[in-house]
Design a protein that fits this description.
Radius of gyration: 23 Å
Helix content: 25-40%
CATH architecture: 3-Layer(bba) Sandwich
CATH topology: FAD/NAD(P)-binding domain
Largest sheet: 7 strands, mixed
Number of helices: 16
Structural class: alpha/beta
Shape: globular
CATH class: Alpha Beta
Distance between the termini: 51 Å
Number of strands: 26
Strand content: 15-25%
Number of domains: 1
Strand order of the largest sheet: 8-9-20-21-22-19-25
Length: 585
C-alpha cells in the first residue's frame, strides 16, 4: 500500500530531523598519533625487548584493544597483513570489489571456499575486516549484550569511543532509499530513522565511509593509543604461542610467540616476567582457533595427526563454527543504479534481515560490468584456486561471463540473511602452515528452522517488489515477475553448489542452491568451552581470546560495530582490573 501524503510528509520530516540532529563523527580525531608501522623483519633491532601484552592480529578487535592497553602498558601488535594506508582497493568504496577479487598473496583479502562450496573471504591487512567489508555500522541488540554478560555501562562507554572517531552518517544512495520505502510499504515498520541501535523495523545505519567514499578503519583507532608504548609489526605471521610447561606448574603458561617475517625469517617475541602479562589472540573467527590448534591446544588426536605437541586437550577448539547464510535477489531496473553498499536495513520479527547493494565502481582501476557484493567476477575468479588456474579454466570463466544476461549488470540486489543460524559446523587444520586456510564447514541450512526463515526472507523480498516504489524502478511495464528475478538470481549467485532444475519452483531449494555469505562467520572459541567469561583460555595461563570466534551468534545486523567496541571494552576491563578502576581510560 502506498504511503498517504500526510504519512509521506511525516516520514520525510523524520528523515531530515534524524539526519541533521545527529553528528557526523568527531572531525577533531587525528591520525597524527598513529604509531610507526614497521615490517616484521625490523624486529631484529628490538628482539631483546619484552612486553606486557602481545596482541596477535591487528584487526577489528585487535586495533582498539592494543591502542587501549598501550595507554598504560607496553604492547606489541603483530599483524600478518600489510598497511591499509595508500591502498586504493581498501580505501575507496568504488574499489570495494577489487579488494575482494584480488587473489595476490599479499592482498588485503584472502579467499577461501568452505567445504559446503560457498566462496568466502578473510582479512589480511591492518584493520582486519573493516578494510574489506561493506562499511555498515550497527550496534548489537541489548539482548545480545545481556546474553554475553558484558557490563552495560562499559559497553555504552565503548561504543561512542569508536563512533566518535571513525563512524559517519551516510548520504543515502537512491537504491538504499528505494529499499527503505519498499520495506515500509511492505510492512517492515516502523521507520526508526538514522540510528546505530538494533531495533525492529526499518532504519538507516552508520557507515565507516565518509562523504567522499573514503574508508575509515579499525587501524585508525591505533592513533588513540600511546605511540611510545605501542609497537606495530606488519607481515608478521604468528606460527604458534610459546608455553613454559615446567614440572610443578598447575597450568602451562604462555611466555611469548613465534612468528615469521615477510622474508621468511623466524623470530620470537616474549612477555615480561609480570604475572599479569598476556598473549591476546585477536586473529578472527578463522585465525584464532587455527592458532590455538597450531599451538597445541585442541582435540589431542587431531593435533597428533599433524605431529603438533599437545599442550592441552580441548575437544571444543574449532567447533561450533557458524556463518549467517545469505541469499540475494537480482532486480533489473530501467537504468543502472548508482553504486551503493549497505546503508538501509529491515529488521524483521522473524529473525531475518533485509539489506541491499547496487552498482559497480567506475575508477580507472575498476573492474567493469560488475555489481559489487554479489559480483559474478568475484565468484567466478574465486572458484579457480591459484595453483589450479589454466588457460582452459580461464576460457571457461570468460565463456560463463559472456553467457550471463546483459541485464545482470543493469540493476541492484536485495539481500536477505538469517540472524543467529542454528546450523553449525567446525574448523580443522589441513596442514601446519598458518598462512594457509584451514578446512571450514558451516553446514548451511542443515537446521530446518534456518531454511524456514530463508523462505520467509524471500517472500518478504517478493512483497517489496510488489510495492509502488519498486514498480516504478522496474525495467518492464508489468513490474517484477518473481519467477523471472529468481531465474536471473540463480545465475547471479555464484558458489560451487550444484544447481537443481526446481530452483525457482521450490523456495527451499532456491535457498540451498544459491546460498552465499556476507562474511559474518563466528565461533570456534566459545565462552564456557574454550575461554572463560573474561575470555581467558581455559586450562592454560597467560592467553586470552578477544574477537568474534568467541561468539555463539553474530551481533546485530552486521558485527563490525560490536567487534570494535569489544576490543575497547576488554582493553578497559583489563586495565581496570590491573589498576583498580583506572581513571582516564
Amino acid at each position: 500500500m502506498a504511503l498517504s501524503k500526510r504519512m509521506l510528509f511525516i516520514f520525510q520530516a523524520m528523515v531530515c530531523l534524524c539526519f541533521f540532529s545527529l553528528s557526523q563523527g568527531n572531525q577533531q580525531f587525528s591520525l597524527r598519533n598513529l604509531p610507526t608501522l614497521q615490517k616484521a623483519s625490523s624486529f631484529l633491532a628490538m628482539r631483546h625487548e619484552t612486553y606486557d601484552y602481545i596482541v596477535v592480529g591487528g584487526g577489528t578487535a585487535g586495533c582498539p584493544l592494543a591502542a587501549t592497553l598501550s595507554l598504560k602498558y607496553k604492547v606489541l601488535l603483530l599483524e600478518r597483513g600489510g598497511s591499509p594506508y595508500g591502498n586504493r582497493n581498501v580505501s575507496y568504496l568504488e574499489n570495494f570489489h577489487i579488494g575482494l577479487s584480488n587473489m595476490a598473496p599479499d592482498s588485503a583479502s584472502q579467499a577461501f571456499i568452505s567445504t559446503d562450496g560457498v566462496i568466502n573471504a578473510r582479512a589480511r591487512v591492518l584493520g582486519g575486516g573493516t578494510c574489506i567489508n561493506a562499511g555498515f555500522y550497527s550496534r548489537a541488540s541489548s539482548n545480545f549484550i545481556q546474553e554475553v554478560g558484558w557490563d552495560e555501562d562499559l559497553v555504552n562507554e565503548s561504543f561512542p569511543w569508536v563512533e566518535d572517531k571513525i563512524v559517519q552518517w551516510p548520504k543515502i544512495a537512491p537504491w538504499q532509499a528505494a529499499l527503505r520505502d519498499g520495506l515500509l510499504q511492505a510492512g517492515v515498520s516502523p521507520f526508526n530513522g538514522y540510528t546505530y541501535d538494533h531495533v525492529s523495523g526499518t532504519k538507516v545505519g552508520g557507515t565507516i565511509f565518509d562523504e567522499t567514499g573514503y574508508r575509515h578503519t579499525a587501524a585508525d583507532l591505533l592513533a588513540a593509543g600511546d605511540p611510545n608504548n605501542l609497537r606495530v609489526l606488519l607481515h608478521a605471521s604468528v606460527n604458534r604461542i610459546v608455553f613454559n610447561s615446567q614440572r610443578g606448574q598447575l597450568k602451562p603458561r604462555a611466555t611469548g610467540v613465534q612468528f615469521t617475517d615477510e622474508n621468511g625469517g623466524l623470530h620470537q617475541a616474549f612477555l615480561n616476567s609480570n604475572c599479569d602479562s598476556e598473549i591476546i589472540v585477536s586473529a578472527g573467527a578463522i585465525g584464532s582457533p587455527q592458532l590455538l590448534l597450531l599451538s597445541g591446544i585442541g582435540p589431542k588426536n587431531d593435533l597428533k595427526s599433524h605431529k603438533i605437541p599437545v599442550v592441552l586437550h580441548n575437544k571444543y577448539v574449532g567447533k561450533g563454527m557458524a556463518d549467517n547464510p545469505m541469499n540475494s535477489i537480482f532486480i533489473p531496473t530501467k537504468s543502472p543504479p548508482r553504486q551503493s553498499l549497505i546503508e538501509t536495513v529491515g529488521i524483521t520479527e522473524a529473525g531475518v534481515f533485509i539489506e541491499a547493494s547496487s552498482g559497480f565502481g567506475q575508477s580507472p582501476e575498476s573492474i567493469h560490468c560488475h555489481h559489487g557484493i554479489m559480483s559474478a567476477e568475484i565468484g567466478q575468479l574465486s572458484t579457480i584456486p591459484p595453483k589450479q588456474r589454466s588457460l582452459e579454466k580461464a576460457q571457461k570463466y570468460a565463456n560463463t561471463k559472456l553467457n550471463l544476461p546483459k541485464e545482470i549488470f543493469h540493476g541492484g540486489f536485495i539481500l536477505e540473511k538469517i540472524d543467529g543460524p542454528l546450523s553449525t559446523g567446525h574448523l580443522a587444520l589441513i596442514d601446519t602452515d598458518v598462512r594457509n586456510n584451514p578446512a571450514v564447514t558451516f553446514n548451511y541450512f542443515s537446521h530446518p528452522q534456518d531454511l524456514t526463515r530463508c523462505v520467509y526472507g524471500i517472500k518478504t523480498i517478493e512483497r517489496i517488489l510488489k510495492t509502488n516504489r519498486f514498480s516504478e524502478l522496474s525495467a518492464n511495464t508489468d513490474g517484477h515477475s518473481m519467477e523471472r528475478v529468481l531465474n536471473m538470481s540463480v545465475q547471479a549467485n555464484v558458489n560451487l553448489i550444484p544447481k537443481h532444475t526446481n530452483d525457482t519452483e521450490s523456495l527451499e531449494q532456491f535457498c540451498r542452491d544459491t546460498v552465499i555469505t556476507i562474511w559474518h562467520y563466528h565461533g570456534g572459541c566459545h565462552v564456557g568451552k574454550v575461554v572463560d567469561q573474561q575470555h581467558r583460555v581455559l586450562g592454560v595461563s597467560g592467553v586470552r581470546v578477544v574477537d568474534g570466534s568467541t561468539f555463539s551468534r553474530s551481533p546485530g545486523t552486521n558485527p563490525q560495530a560490536t567487534v570494535m567496541m569489544m576490543g575497547r571494552y576488554f582493553g578497559v576491563m583489563i586495565l581496570r582490573g590491573r589498576l583498580g578502576q583506572a581513571a582516564g581510560v
